[in-house]
Amino acid sequence: MRLTSFTDYGLRALMRIASDPSRGFSTAELADEFGLSRHHLAKIVQRLAQGGIVTTRRGGGGGAMLAVPAETLRLGAVVRLLEEGSAGLVDCLTPGAPACTVDGHCGLKSRLHRAEAAFMAELDRSTLADIALHPLEEVRS
Length: 141
Fold this sequence. Notes:
two-stranded antiparallel ribbon
């Protein structure tokens, strides 16, 4: 399995936000820490906010904060949200993809579907709290 960079960066941002859930993190701060485009990260944070994972506030003291406790946020739920609309493992697993030429005779599709389900089930066993980064103060010390 390969996740999109959109999901990778979203998980990284959430790992940092979970390190200090009482404060807001600006997209500029997160983008600088991870060497990402601010514009791209703003789109990711927007998707996370639309999905109810973070809340955002503009202005001084604003930024992105967790909308739910990190201990209750399953990684599978985050990945499903961020991967929404992305291509499947193979074309035949992508919703709305053209019909497969070997559909009905293929033994691969069901196996890939089960592998994808197992991958997501593994992510569902972990929470954001399990992967939160150390607070920035500890990193800089």
